[in-house]
Structure prediction request, 232 residues.
Amino acid sequence: MWGVLEGLVLGGLAFRLRTIIRTYRLLRRTQDAEIAWQGALAAVAGERLARLVLAEGETIYYALLNWRSEPSFPANTTPLTTHRESGQLALLWGLLGISCIELMAVHVLLLHWLPSAAVWVTLLSGYGCLLLLAVINTIRVRPSYLTLDALHLRLDLRWWAVIPRHHLADVTPISDKQPGALNAALLTAPNLLITFNEPIQLTGLYGIRKTVTQLTLFVDDRGAVLRNITNQ
Prediction:
């Protein structure tokens, strides 16, 4: 059933491919690639389906097809890298290795005790490993960045948003999690607290949305980020 549905969806999108590409190119002039793709897909398939297709496409692309790319951010902007000083990539690679070993062990056990569930559990666990691989890659190649007008927040595959600078009420150096703030630091303690002057909506994988007024994250060059924001 799901295979037939996916086939119909992909067939319909292929039929409207010219419209998708034309809309993408138009949006790409002023938007990040992910926002442009979502807008292009939504124009022909609806917002909800566009989020689903984009999530699957991003997972496959960043997990399997994008490892030779250099970090991507526009010229004359300030990137907010997170992996050079945090050690989070080493931790994530270790977590991925443990997950793969666990996947093989569980598969062998299920084949012996519950063969009917072995394939489905293995596929689900394998997808989890694929998702983790995509997260590792996006941390490196798709950092957040600051322009003269906005903070382009790109937290691997978890969250993204374009936040105008005039919504940044305060940026404070910290050394630990903060009560009431969304902690966006991954496998490391946050070192920056951003407070907004109005609620900001973040978009996550599969179109999950979250509204926040404070956000904590880790950035490699905290001093440069603080100077960039406070001097504008």
